[in-house]
Amino acid sequence: MKIKDIVNRNIVTLTNCEHEPIHIPGSIQPHGFLIGLNADWKIDFCTANIAEFIDIQHTEVLGKDLTAVFGSKSQEQILEYLNEDKIQNVFPLEINLLEKQFQLSIHKSFDIYVLEAEPKFPDREKLADVYTQTIQFVTQMNNTSSLKDLCALVAQGTREITGYDRVMIYRFDEQYNGEVIAENCREDLEPFLGLHYPHTDIPPQARELYIKNQLRLIVDIDYKPVPIFTIDDNREDKNLDLSLSILRSTSPIHVQYLKNMGVGATLTISLIHQDKLWGLIACHHYSKKNISPEIRLAAKLQGQFITSQIDIRQSNDENVNARKTSLALELLSGLELPLTEDSLETIIKSPQLLNICNASGVSVLVKDKIYKNGLTPSNEQIISLIESINKKTTDKTFSTNKLRDHFPEMEECSDFAGIIYHSLDSANHIIWYRPETISEINWGGDPEKAIVKDSNGLHPRNSFNIWKQIIKNQSNIWKQYEINAATQYAHTLHNHLMMIMLSEEEEKYRTQSEILRETNAELENINWISTHDLQEPLRKIQLITSKMLTELDVIPLESISSSLVRVSKSAARMRVLLEDILKFTRIKYTRDALQEVDLNQILEITLAEMKENIAEKNAVIESENLPEVHAIGFLMRQLFSNIIQNSLKYASQERTPVIKITASKEAELVGHSNKIYCHWVNFSDNGIGFEQQYAETIFKVFTRLHNQDEYGGSGVGLALCKKIMQTVGGNIYATGKLGVGTDIKIYFPCNPEDSLI
User: Fold this and answer.
1) How many other CB atoms sit within 10 Å of the CB of residue 498?
2) Any idea where the Phytochrome chromophore attachment site domain is (predicted)?
3) Which one, of 399, 364, 386, lies nearest residue 479 by Cα?
4) In which band, very low, low, confident or very high, does the pLDDT at 42 lie, cut at 50, 70 and 90?
């Protein structure tokens, strides 16, 4: 039988150091030995140092059954241990192997059971002692309110339990740079509290292992790795995943890093929060040191105390400021404001508008007018910033504490590094500002030199002297409760603006009612004049015809002809006058005739009437459910017909005409005219389109963008559409892209019964 070691001898370089396979080193630390059992309970892996603990060589063990080496009783104990509830297995299995006492840690690595044996500790702490220490700690923990105080208590408690020279609570930021947020150490040691360490100190694969295995022990930094041997079965990639191992050998780079710090032994406990590595409890000793399983468990519990309290303690830490923010939001939302634009002056001057998110300045853009308070950019910078945000994102909200990272072109706004932006609608916006905060960070060594390459190879940095870094172009980070408060008030302000618009519309209607009363008074005069004017041709017709009837026998033929011409002229005058009056009265009664109209029925009728035209163009009409609107049925049929006919007329010769008809689901404030409309319908085609600069021109009567020879028509169709929408109190807009297509969007007024809030 041939055997081989599985030591990983791959050379670590600058290009692969972040992918160093630290989970399969092929070696262990020498304070215990390891064997690996396959599914048949044969020993497939064994460390070279087994003979240092029991009287047997690794060459004698490999390939044999576990019972052949250690006896059937040992196998029975291991099976019983594996079958026990996992909660019972928080401590290693105490077992006698060839007349010597060991503590056996067992885990499964794929199809291999990994058994790690350490000599039984002669001075083991009793479980009762660990329990007593834990109860005392919980009592003290309940007396702390902040996360910082809790971490300081854990650092102190962990050092008391473990006896390490230094215990640090190490917290990661978003990029996994670490900061020592709590520390307890020997009085003669230089404190590390407040120091920052770069993310390269703990590379990604190490962070992954910290999540899988939450306790990591290095007993002696100067240890010599012990190779793991296995049966040579001609598999080149044969190895053993030691992610969950207690004895796993450590990366040479990490060992050198600790040596450079002067550390002799370490214990590291992972702090996992929301399935992510939140931080570490890092214990350093300046000589070699091992601790019993009971102490390891007690130390691990310290970490679980922190992670179980993170959300609660962070909430407590922010609670005071959050209450201030909530109070400011309550006061601001409770202001009694008139429904006029003058109320914006009151809002912008209110100190609560800044206090709700602890901003230094705020600006509100409404109808192209900017209201400002506090430290803010210039009006030109504010407009430029809004344009930049709208180009970058379609979201209605945006926040950052590093403005120039997102918008390098905003260099002129360098004094304002943090913003919270909300789009109230397409034309109205609110922005809160924070100034640049220049800060100083103390690093434990230059973070740019975390890994050093010299003539001797790749090494971690040697110097851990404090390295100061000045941070610019950023503000204090916006807290989530500040962002939430800003969002709440932006919604309140949006509603207030809608109410102002409604009030203005109501005032317009009131004014129009006055005009209508005046118009009706004029109409009475017009009707009287019109009636008087009708009597005059009627009298002429009556006189002429009466004379003709009485003198029929004596009147010459020429006179009869002349009289008939005069009658015809009078009748024609009457017809023109009647038509004009009819047109006038029709417009008058059109306003009064607004009623509920189902646009689905209008579309169905229109498509039926245009069936031949649609078939001739081979066009495809796609529509969704349309709303009921406040309008006039026959005008809507004319409107739909004109719009669809326009799309068919200007269809592209290169593709099948497709007209998509979509509709709104709820009321909205339209930025084009700052009016509130309850419904809109959009006609989108894939025709020849037009340049957007002609968006207003196409609605002017007799206006054409193309030659008569190219496309027929009088140029009245869209002008009539606009007139119809004005008649029903709505509006119409066009959006085009040359060679792509056209969107015609029509807006309908609200019914009195419609709820907008």
Assistant:
1) 18
2) 146-304
3) 399
4) very high
Q: What percent of the residues of the chain are helix, what percent strand, and what percent coil, each to the nearest 5? A: 45, 25, 35
Angstrom distance (rounded) from CA 368 to CA 518 = 34
Find tokens 């002067």 and name the residue.
262
Q: Is residue 340 part of a domain?
A: yes
Is residue 588 helix, strand or coil? helix
For residue 239, CA distances in Å to 133, 217, 234, 242 come to 41, 22, 12, 9
Q: How confident is the model at residue 686 (pLDDT cuts 50, 70, 90)?
A: very high
Question: Residue 51 corresponds to which tokens in the numbers above?
Answer: 């003979």
Cα separation, 757 vs 753, in Å, equals 12
Asked if residue 22 is part of any domain, the answer here is yes
Q: Where is 621: in which H helix or E strand? A: strand 620-623
Res 224: pLDDT: 96
User: Residues 576, 611: one domain?
Assistant: no
Residue 33: strand pairing partners: 117
**Spatial CA neighbour of 237 closest among 488, 10, 500:** 10
Task: Categorize the per-residue pLDDT at 518 as very low, low, confident or very high, splitting at 50, 70 and 90.
Answer: very low
Q: Is 63 left (phi over 0), alpha (psi -120 to 50) or beta?
A: left
Average pLDDT taken over every residue of the chain? 80
Residue 593, φ and ψ in degrees, nearest 5: -95, 10
pLDDT at position 583 is: 42
Instruction: For residues 647 and 619, state if they share a domain.
Output: yes
* DSSP conformation letters of 468-516: EEEE-S--PPPPHHHHHHHHHHHHHHHHHHHHHHHHHHHHHHHHHHHHH
Burial class (CB in 10 A: 0-12, 13-18, 19+), 704: middle
Please compute Rg for the chain using Cα positions. Answer: 43
How many domains, the chain? 4
Q: Which residue range(s) make up the domain with 413?
A: 332-438+478-498
